Structure prediction request, 558 residues.
Amino acid sequence: MAIRFEKVNFSYGAGTTLAQSILHDVTLEMPTGRVTAVVGQTGSGKSTLIQHINGLLKPTSGRVTVDNFELTSHTKEKELVKLRKSVGIAFQFPENQLFANTVLEDVMYAPVNFGATKSEAKLAAERALTRTGVMRGLWGKSPFELSGGQMRRVAMAGTLSSDPSVVVMDEPAAGLDPKGQGELLQLVLELKKLGKTIIIISHQMDHVVAVADHVIVMHEGRVVAQESPQILFNRDITWFKTMKLDLPKAGQLAEKLRDEGIILSKRPLTLNELADLINAEVSHE
Amino acid sequence: MTQAIRINNLKYNYDDNDTVFDDFNLEIDAGQWLALVGHNGSGKSTLAKLILGLIEANNGTITVFGEQLRIDTVHHVREQIGMVFQNPDNQFVGATVADDVAFGLENKEMPSSDMPKVIDEALTIVGMQDFKYREPHMLSGGQKQRVALASVLALQPKIIILDEATAMLDPDGRATVMATLQNLKQRFGSELTLITITHDMNEAMLADRVVVINDGQLILDGSPSEVFSQCDVMHHNGLELPFVGELAVRLDPKPDGYLDERELIKWLSDLKK
Prediction:
């Protein structure tokens, strides 16, 4: 499922005097079967961007293609069903959208909605709940009895139960404890192994380094970089300041060490890399 | 020293008999900033609800400034405690930021002529005075949480509890809320007891005292540097150290005990000399 944006512009209230332009001339590609991270400060257009992938928003001008589906300002609402079936979106804090009486019913909702029979939907829901690590003992409970971390997993299962080939996640690990965050990143990598195309929005550059193959940087509604994390995070430090983007924590600390005269041989992207570089630097003396 | 909160022999079960607390004890001095840390599901939010009397303990006592929490005292106890919750979108009622802060004051039956001054003061403390006439839903997450904090401050509580109040914020929002809390502590000193419930250790680091709980048990209790020196215990309880702490345990040679970022950088540059 190749995803391509060509000269996409988007404005709220297009054609009115209140028109507010959000995306400007966005051209990009999100590679099939890979994890693409979309980063940028709050208000840079990330959420607007991803809502074009399943047609929740349509471009004001330009074109989005997802595999052979083409989305433009003229696309009719009823044509979107096909797109929505192949693209699952988990919004920020998806647990706020749980609604059914039991965990299992909640997760069955999407496949039933897309025309699966009850028994097919049940099977799909059970598979999704197993994949996201929700224990069988919880399937009959009300989603509202669960802890925050468990609710997040149920909500993720709800996105996966209709077996979409593209999975979009807006800040999937936000608010979880370290263990929960680690498990979510693991889930992203498992989904990638299954051949899915994954798009995640994240403010945590450490998570981007951990899972992303490709990074799209948004700034004031424009794409200002699209490249691998290794290339991106080796850009000059002044660029990050201009874009108000963080380095991964290891890179941030390396910059502070540099200010104190401890210069590492390259910029580390992970904790272990940072420790190795410091150990090499200090023991050389 | 005056005690803000004393918890004795607390016992609490969920309906289905899952024991959350069994013989739990904790004393919090007035004016202390205490970070209550633990992983999701460790019981830390349940403890906050018990202190506020939102749920009732099966056994044991909770005393707030000398007054034991009971059905007939719960309203008075609650008046002394302000609470800020995790989701910034679930705590607004007013059409403007100022209205929102006014809501709590109206409930307290403050004369409306007194309100503007109190509202202005509270918004100034959190750095949101310029947003007085804005609609709350147009604010960023960090700004919303600061307004929620102003609404609480306007009521002049002796204790403020923040339950994962920064968990849903972006890094900028988180930094501004943390800076606001540091400001509050400086301004009110021993007049304000602050309890931050969190699993973010960079946040816990700012407190005077860190209490780690898991399965309703008190696991560690001490200053941030004492608690963060217990690397294995923290990991075993599903928690991480602040980033520099995680780095220090991977260094060779390693420093003795926990160093904060500034100290670790200094230690490394001395080592290099």
Summary: Chain B has one domain: 3-222. DSSP finds eleven helices and ten strands in chain B. Residues 3-222 of chain B form a domain with the Rossmann fold fold (CATH 3.40.50.300).
